[in-house]
Each structure stands twice: as C-alpha cells, then as structure tokens.
C-alpha cells in the first residue's frame, strides 16, 4: 500500500482494561489528523470522543469484540474487518463479535481524514490497521501467558483462542489472560502473517451479521424507537431551491394522531404519533410555494444546453498526439452522442433520522456513511459543540453514496424538526420523497468523434463530457478538482487504456440547480457505458471484431487484457 499504509509505530498503544479484559487501541498518525489535537492516552469507559479509540476488545468471557469504523450497508464490513483482526489474533471465529464504532477522530479514514465509508476503500484502507491490531493483541496475550508461566514468550504460540506452550502442553484461553495482558507494554513491532498461512482471510466464512438479519434482531435506522418519539414527514418544495410562502394546516391538524405542524427551512413538517397520521396530515396541507431561482429549470432546457456545450471545446483532461490533424486524415470518421439521466440512489431503506435534542446534548440515530460531517453539521444546527452530539450508526438498508452527503441534508433537516417540535422525532422519507429529493448521480451528455485508418484500426478518439461536478463545494474539492476538472467526472474516460495514437478527452461542468452526489462506482458508472459503447461503434466502422480489437489495443495492459480474455471465454464469445 502507498498513501494508505500506516507504520506500526504510528499507532501501537495499549488501552486499559474495559470492564475486565484487554483493550487494544490504535493511535492515529499526525499526517491523518492533520493538526487536530490528540494524545496517546489510555481508554476508560467514559473516554471523550477525541481520545484515541479501541478497535479490539477481549473480555474475560473469551469474547473478542472488533469495533468497526465503517458503516455496514450490505457490503460485509461487519465481517471482513473482524476477519482481519481474527486472522492475526489467532482467534476462535465463533467467539468473534462486531460493534459499530462511535464517532471519534481515531476512527477516521486513513486517507480522507474523516470518519466515513465510501469509494470502495474499506478493505484497502484498513488492511494494515486491523491486522496489526490483531497481531498486537496476540503478542500481548502471549506475553501475559509467559509471565504467568514464567517462561520465555518465544516458545509460545497462539491458536484458535488460546495461548499454547508446545513443550509442556499448557493452554490458556484469551479470556483468562485478558486482565494480565492489559497491563503489558505493547511491542514496538509485530510480525504479520504470510498470506499463504491465512486460515480465515480468503476462506469461506459465515457473516457475523446474518443471524440477526434473518431473525429480525438487526437494527436499521427505521427500526429505532425511543420513548416519547414522534414520527415526522416533511412537505418539501416541488422545485429545488423553492421556499414556503404560506400554508394552511387546518385540515392536516384535524387528522387523528397529528400533534403539531411546524415550518422549517426545507418545508412544512407534520409531527404525529405514527407514520400513517403523519402521511395523511401531510397530504392535507395547503401550501403556496415560491419556486425560487430554478422555477424555469426543465429537462428539455438542460438537454439543449448540454448538447450545445458538447459541440464546443471544454477543459482538456487528457491529450495524446494530434487529434485534430488525425481526424482530418482519417479514412473514415463517425460521431456518436450518449445521454444519461439523473439517477436516484433508490436504497432499499428510504432516508430516516431520529433526533433526541436536549438543552445541552443531542443524540442521533441514522444510517450514515459520513459520521464526522453529520455530527458536525448536527452540532452547528443545534447550537452545540460536536462533543455534545452522540451519533449512533445502525445498519444501513443500502447507501450507494446517498448517505454520504457532505451537505448532511437529511440530518440537518431532522435537527431543525427536533428544535421546533421540542420532543424526540423520527423524520422519515417516503419512497417517493427519496426518489424526487435530489442529490442524484448527475445527468451526463457525451459526444464522441472517432476515426479509423485504411486498415480499419482506430486512429483518433475525441470525447467531450458534459455534466455537473460532484466534488465542487465539498470537503473533497481541494484534491478532487484540479485545474477546473473534477477527476470523478472523467474517470473511466481520461484514463482510457486502449492504445489509440491520437486521443483527447475534455470536460464541461455546467452549474445547474439540481443537487448532485456520488453514486455507486462514481464516474465509471456513466463513462464506462459511453466509452465501451462508442468503442463498439468504432470497431464496427472499421470492420473489426470488438473483442479482438480490444484485445489488440490492450497489448500493454496485461491485467486488463487477462480480464477481457476471461470474460470472452466465460461468455463463449465468437
């Protein structure tokens, strides 16, 4: 690993016993925290959110708890990250449990510097950190056994939840050693396994969260219920950026179960004893809207704007050779345009957020991929400090990026509702709300012009991309946008692997009043389709088999060529 690699000396730190047992904490290096205040202190149950945090906890009952700093939304991190710890710890997998992490700086992503889940980085970013946590715990348990048995720890080994003395046959469970291990000095360096010796990683393993999902015990955001909680639905503007001019709530208030109706920045909130009265009450609201700056915005108008931009030069993301001259000299040229609409994330579980706001504290339950940002935004909205906000992350019924919104829209809205309601609230988005609520994958318009030579081989390829930036205005703008080009807009296009002699990819980034956000696989989700579709058209124009042509143009890309060949084999191409 490169930027995500963490030196062991950066974070080896032993915590104190937590309710009896061994707690191993991982210290976050300076370059991750980038100047934030932190100290390598031992943990106690009442540790403040900014203290170094524990990833591994071993109890006297032999249970190994791995505290997972990634949101579980079906991708399996509640199993994959514990597997890394268990592998190096030599734990008994049947004794391994998971626990969602609280919000704390030491749980930050090693590269992004905030606590979040996204970019398909959970395994790669935590590969070293979680394995080293397990290895550190293993070495400390071995040291504890050596102390108890008065032997050299070099002759001992760990296996399946025990420390074993091969010479005497003595065995001690991790739980029986946990209290003593908690007093040991952590090693400055720990050996990690050779992958060929893995017993858990890479092997079929039961998911730790499956039983609770099968028996109904798993808690998602929509399952959360706290005493005194009201359910809330919000009537939002029919046009992005619209505002309430006035509203009549008499009919809505007459619905049995409706307790209050309040105006908030995003619309009108109906506060009720349950979902159905909140839904009926909202349906009976009479609201006059100011459609605002996007009143004239239309799909037709945007399409015309995009199509016009696509025919003009944009900011150049990549240029190879002389595309203009090559097009003029090509034996045959073709033009193609592809259009992709806005796409909602459409997670199985619609958005929801529970907020219990008190005078000096706030407690939130929501399925989020963006813990650091959401806690900070909630605190600012409530007039509190971040450390006064406790954010719980239940399981997510899908995320796909919608729950990793730097604007924290659904969390901020729920805090506004709680401030107005003065009772605990659960703000629920219906499926319809979720679909029309914005923060979509952007609409895209792609225009290609390509040419082939006399033998039908691709000679030139130009690709103009038109679409909104998803990085602009976010904490990722500083490194996500360079020279005006959002790297996520051109990924899968500017890094085209096919060996075409003359190439140009350029980008237009119009400012449109539709809120947009990353979507699963980000730029590859739209550029992949457009690029490969046009490649097929160019192959057809030159009279070439699209598979054979791809294979020939990937001569310098053996890995990708191997993937292509396997796909052709499995698909029985030709």
According to DSSP, the number of beta strands is: 24
According to CATH, the homologous superfamily of the largest domain is Aldehyde oxidase/xanthine dehydrogenase, molybdopterin binding domain
The name of the CATH architecture of the largest domain is 2-Layer Sandwich
Provide the CATH top-level class of the largest domain.
Alpha Beta
Q: Output the strand order for the largest sheet.
A: 11-12-9-19-16-17-18
Main beta sheet, described? 7 strands, mixed
Helix content: 25-40%
Integer average pLDDT: 91
Tally the helices.
17
Report Rg. 28 Å
Class based on secondary structure composition and strand pairing? alpha+beta
- Number of domains in the coordinates? 3
Low-confidence stretches: 1-19, 26-53
Structural description of this entry:
- The protein is α+β, with helices and mostly antiparallel strands and 574 residues long.
- It folds into three domains: 8-210, 2-Layer Sandwich (Aldehyde Oxidoreductase, domain 4), CATH 3.30.365; 223-291 and 346-436, Aldehyde Oxidoreductase, domain 4; 299-343 and 440-543, Aldehyde Oxidoreductase, domain 4, CATH 3.30.365.10.
- The strands form six sheets. It has a seven-stranded mixed beta sheet, sandwiched between helices.
- A hairpin with a 4-residue loop joins strand 16 and strand 17 (362-365).
- Helix 2 (77-89) packs parallel to helix 3 (122-149), helix 3 (122-149) packs across helix 4 (174-181) and helix 10 (371-382) runs parallel beside helix 11.
- The protein is flat and about 85 Å long.
- The relative contact order is 0.10.
């Amino acid at each position: 690993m490169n930027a995500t690699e963490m030196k062991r000396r950066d974070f080896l730190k032993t915590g104190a016993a937590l309710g009896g047992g061994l707690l191993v904490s991982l210290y976050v290096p300076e370059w991750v925290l980038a100047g934030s205040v932190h100290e390598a202190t031992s943990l106690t149950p009442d540790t403040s959110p900014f203290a170094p945090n524990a990833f591994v906890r071993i109890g006297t009952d032999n249970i190994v708890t791995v505290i997972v700093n990634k949101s579980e939304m079906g991708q399996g991190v509640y199993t994959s990250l514990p597997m890394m710890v268990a592998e190096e710890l030599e734990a008994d997998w049947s004794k391994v449990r998971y626990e969602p992490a609280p919000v704390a700086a030491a749980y930050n992503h090693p590269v992004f510097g905030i606590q979040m889940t996204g970019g398909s980085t959970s395994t790669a970013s935590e590969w070293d950190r979680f394995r080293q946590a397990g290895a550190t715990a293993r070495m400390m348990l071995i040291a504890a056994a050596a102390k108890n048995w008065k032997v050299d720890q070099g002759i001992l080994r760990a296996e399946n939840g025990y420390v074993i003395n091969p010479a005497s046959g003595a065995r001690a469970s991790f739980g029986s050693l946990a209290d003593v291990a908690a007093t040991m000095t952590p090693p400055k360096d720990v050996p990690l396994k050779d992958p060929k010796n893995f017993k858990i990683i890479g092997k079929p393993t039961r998911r730790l969260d499956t039983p609770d999902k099968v028996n109904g015990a798993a808690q998602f955001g929509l399952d959360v219920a706290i005493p005194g909680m009201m359910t809330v639905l919000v009537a939002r503007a029919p046009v992005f950026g619209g505002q309430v001019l006035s509203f009549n709530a008499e009919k809505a208030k007459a619905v049995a179960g409706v307790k209050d109706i309040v105006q908030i920045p995003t619309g009108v909130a109906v506060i009720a004893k349950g979902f159905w009265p909140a839904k009926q009450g909202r349906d009976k609201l009479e609201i006059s809207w100011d459609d605002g700056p996007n009143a004239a915005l239309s799909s037709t108008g945007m399409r015309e704007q995009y199509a016009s931009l696509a025919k003009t030069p944009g900011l150049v993301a990549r240029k190879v050779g002389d595309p203009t001259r090559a097009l003029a000299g090509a034996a045959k040229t073709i033009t193609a345009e592809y259009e992709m609409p806005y796409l909602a994330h459409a997670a199985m579980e619609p958005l929801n957020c529970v907020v219990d706001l008190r005078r000096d504290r706030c407690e939130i339950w929501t399925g989020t991929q963006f813990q650091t940002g959401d806690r900070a935004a909630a605190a600012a909205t409530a007039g509190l400090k971040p450390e006064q906000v406790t954010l719980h992350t239940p399981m997510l019924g899908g995320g796909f990026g919608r729950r990793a919104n730097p604007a924290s829209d659904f969390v901020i809205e729920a805090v506004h509702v709680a401030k107005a309601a003065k009772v605990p609230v659960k703000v629920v988005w219906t499926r319809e709300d979720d679909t029309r609520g914005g923060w979509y994958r952007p609409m895209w318009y792609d225009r290609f012009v390509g040419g082939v030579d006399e033998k039908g081989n691709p000679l030139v390829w130009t690709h103009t991309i038109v679409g909104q930036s998803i990085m602009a205005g976010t904490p990722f703008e500083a490194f996500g946008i360079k020279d005006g080009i959002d790297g996520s807009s051109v990924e899968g296009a500017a890094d085209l692997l096919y060996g075409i002699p003359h190439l140009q990819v350029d980008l237009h980034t119009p400012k449109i009043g539709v809120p947009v956000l990353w979507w699963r696989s980000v730029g590859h989700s739209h550029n992949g389709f457009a690029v490969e579709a046009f490649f097929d058209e160019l192959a057809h124009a030159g009279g070439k088999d699209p598979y054979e042509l791809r294979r020939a143009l990937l001569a310098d890309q053996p890995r990708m060529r191997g993937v292509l060949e396997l796909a052709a084999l499995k698909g029985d191409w030709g």
